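Slide 14.
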Amino acid sequence: MSPRITLAVAGRVLVQLRRDPRTVVLLLVVPCLLLTLLWWMFEDSLGNPFGRFGPALLAVFPFIVMFLVTSVTTLRERSGGTLERLLAMPMGRLDFLVGYALAFGVVAAVQALLAVVVSVGFLDLDIAGSVLLLGLVAVADAVLGSALGLFVSAFARTEFQAVQFLPAVVFPQLLLCGLFVGRDALPDVLHAASDVLPLSYAVDAMTHLTRGTATSDVWLDLLVVAGFAVASLGLGAATLRRRTP
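Slide 15: predicted structure.
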């Protein structure tokens, strides 16, 4: 893998995103709007439901949005023949994937920063831990979504099929991550399944930050999320095809 080539790929992706304002709005604005909508729904409810659900959704929304956009964008590169032309040059698969991950990682950082500023600064979300660590976890969650999107795009032939991976890959994690029912309250089989799903650790990290749990627990969850992201990139490099048959 060449750092120069990897950075060139990342720069190319960022230039493409800058020329696509609709995608930029989807990536940066929509998560903030969804969090605001949720806060508005629960504004007059007793027990501060937004305080319970808000931290978990700071992990969930970036993950879902980045997964969707990355999987569709990568498939478009392959089906349009762009990937085949790029790989015909002195560039490896890992250069391509890491370049994409870096580009979307930059976008993820901006997205997470906006979401955290809106949630903590305007929606009064209580955070017992470090706001900086909260932002770092949100960035890791978004990067994880990008890495998984890069991986699953190798198994889709059309953009519609790429979108179909959303309920297959993301929804089970959404149901078992502890957002609706605490993971400790799940049946044993489902609890064991949630232990091997990366979104569970992302939500756990956010929950620890709101409850003032030891910072070491947050860092442990963060390392697990990062490990899943790196593993997804490795698998993506092994399964990436030059073009769609």
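Speaker note: Residues 3-239 form one domain.
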